[in-house]
């Protein structure tokens, strides 16, 4: 109980510390998650059981990500008594637009960091992260492959959440008023007596449309 009280005091100090200017603010973190982790280390909380577990769980969740299929929706709850991080693994095709929306309750006093990663050999490459409002994340997939979405609340935070992940085309149809008849040739159609494949999509419209 005494250790928990000390940690709570440290976390309260983090809030005050982050509001003040100083050497810590000279280097801007890449994401809110990284900023919070840096504050834990600056306050020495990474040497405590809770702080060390929070940092370790962030990495381990990427390795143990749950395989899902998009579109996907899930409701969950993070308890202050547990130090948790969850991650979801899914596939995206090149040209797809990923949109993730997070609804958390309560909004005040309960922060969930969520970011998007890509496996890179034995490591993971950070692709995108939600801002401090923590409500939405988007990504245009530049290549087909595996992607991982991670969610992790701050220490001692309790609340419910709903995560919704959907996909769609990254580019809209180029013609304002068009039908399927506007498409005259598709990707992969044989050309020159099937000696080569068409690498494009031909769309026709009246001149100066």
Structural summary, described in words:
Helices cover 21% and strands 36% of the residues. The chain has 209 residues and is of the alpha+beta class. The termini are far apart.
Draw up the topology in text:
Elements: H1 2-18, H2 32-42, H3 49-63, E1 66-67, E2 72-78, E3 86-92, E4 96-105, E5 112-120, E6 123-129, E7 136-140, E8 145-153, E9 159-169, E10 183-185, E11 190-191, E12 196-197, E13 202-203
Parallel strand pairs: 1-3
Antiparallel strand pairs: 2-9, 3-8, 4-7, 4-9, 5-6, 5-8, 10-13, 11-12
Task: Output the keywords.
4-stranded antiparallel beta sheet; 13 strands; 2 domains; single chain; alpha+beta; Jelly Rolls; 209 residues
